Amino acid sequence: MGSMLKKIKKNIKTDYVTFICPKCKTKEDIPFDVVDMLDKCDGGDPKYPPRFDCLVCNGKMQPVY
Known about the structure:
alpha+beta, single chain, globular
């Protein structure tokens, strides 16, 4: 598990990670298992969690810390 996700998991009280779009401020709760799975499948830098496309605008959603 990426080091960033370990920090997120310590901070959450549920089984979801809240992501927010920096452009339109839309929030979405994504199951932690999905975020963790995508982080493991991602060939990128493990310091950064996966980012999701915003369904409202063309922004990239980021986890709320």
